Amino acid sequence: MAAEPKMETQYIAGAVVGHLTADSINGTDSGLHSIASVSQIGAIVPVTLFSSEDTVLNPSGIINTIQKFRTTDDVFSDYFLTGHVLVQSAELVTREQVFREFIGTISGGSDQWLVQRVDLVAYDSVKSSLPSGPYFLEGPLVRKAYRLYGDSLESFQAAVLPAEDGGDYSFVELHKPIRKNNGAWIQSIAVPSRCYSKPTKDKPLSGVRVSVKDNYALAGLKTGNQNKAFFATYEPEQESAEYVKRLIDLGAVIVGKTKLSSFASSEKPCDWWEFQCPFNARGDGQLNPGQSTTGGATAAGGYDWLDISIGSDTFGSVREPAAQNAVYGIRFSTDVAVPMGGVYPSSPVFDVIGILGRDLAAFSTFAKSTVNSVIRTYDKWPQRILYPTDFFPSGEKAQQQFWDGFVTVLEDFLGVKKESISIEQTWNDEPPAAAAGRDYKTFTKYLAANPFYYDGYHEYEYFRADHLAKFGTKAYVSPHMQWKWDIGANLSKSDYEQSKKDIVLFRKWFDTKIMGKSSGSGTDAILVLPVGPGAPVYRDQFVVPTPRLGLDALNLAAALALPHAVFPIGQVPYDSPKSGRKEYLPIAGSIAGASGSDLVLIDLVHRALMKAVWPTTIKAGRTAFDDDRTLDMSVTAQVAMLGVVGSEDLTDTKLVQQQKN
């Protein structure tokens, strides 16, 4: 989407976090005032609070703190630098000290700030202090400050705030539409000041802003599953999903629920009949945003005020959108990595949580902090790089060259060369006896498809019955969803059970013959897999659905219960028929490992990219990287990394910019 002028910054007051003492200092008479006179009844006043815990309470210390706010907090602005100041300090015990330090003009460099009134903030019962930062004052009550951001990409289904009276895991929906510069109204998302949060050992995710896919239960809100009939059938959730509770315990801030393909299916943008499909911020704004964890990926790729999106992955629902929106993404190991309680299913055989983000270091910290204890780091790296010819070479020419460059980076870091393998040929040469003579294509044709479609239909039998009982009508679902359900309805239970048995057999065979666990490195190899399109695919292209038969590069990891991580590595310029100008298509690489090697995959690629001086952070918005060279390296280094040997390749792919003689 084309860039729009910035909207006027808007704020709201959040939960009560403190209250004033009886003492207030006024610059006119420096007398004692009653609490009732601090602000008019019902009035909410923007203020800045300074605490002796993190600020030197003198003019230079205050100015330094303000400068820090301006560079580290997107909520703080001069809007909060009114003539009214809050102070919390055990050291300022008399009104005279407060008057001497604060009342009057505070100067520092080009900053001058006239303070006319100071109020003292009381300590709570355990003497814990409030962090310095922006707040709102309502009478004697101190409230958190939230900034409102417009959801211009239409990524969110609901904005949320913590419920003040429902416990730590409960929420209320925020209804605060804001007007865009073109006059249209859009939903707003509220985010708290980053000044309030400082990561600790117990709360390593303190202040991390997280969006949640709308197939997760959030206490106090309805779960919609992106279907109006489902939303209407059920009451608000009583409990939040287990993983959400874990995030909150670790300090994360849940800001809203993001849209998904209905029932976490594979609806393309033209299949969204009941809701507007979110927009991909990359390129011309009209690229396909990917399926299922659609809103989570578009929000992560488009909004710099959001840190992490969490979703679910069945057949690629986190990984494909991650590649298309140029964000880091991982499908965790099925069944062992994270708790799934409170996440509505697509197919329990394959379903698992996944996360998306733009900063690989923060992404790694988030993953390490939230996975189960059985998922750990290791002292050694795997010493094999598997390059499956079942899927490579693949894609457009430029995309393949980026993938080759990605493999070169991994080879250089591990000190080994890739091994070309064929999973199909290995199976055909050494099949398990229990396969009863079935070759690879025959064995895998319905291996993953049967559970995927069978579960997709039968997991929601209760919903169809509940809706009929409540409304007396059949529940409406989109044509794509009905098509998927019809396939599942026609599958037999015996075929379903046989496929589940075959999946167990396939996993054991793969673990023995291709890639398995390692006590020293978590996985004895990494498997490189293609991901994402190599040419623009637009949201207005209607795609006739076809069943997902066999094993492709996305559902392979699902069938094998493997962790599979996606890493944006570049972008390719293209001439857009939508915008009429040159745009940039993101390119991503990916690797999978044995079950339980989730953190190994992230750490390995993170360190390999740093060694190669490749980017480990992604920009939000139209472009993921700074320019169409993609990687901040010299032309010579890029040619070496990407294996480009001829000037024709450089011209065709535009991977590097040639200097004119």
UniProtKB/TrEMBL annotation:
Residues 200-380 form the Amidase domain. Pfam families: Amidase, DUF8016. Residues 35-138 form the Scytalone dehydratase-like protein Arp1 N-terminal domain. This is Amidase signature enzyme. It comes from Pseudovirgaria hyperparasitica. The lineage of its organism: Eukaryota, Fungi, Dikarya, Ascomycota, Pezizomycotina.
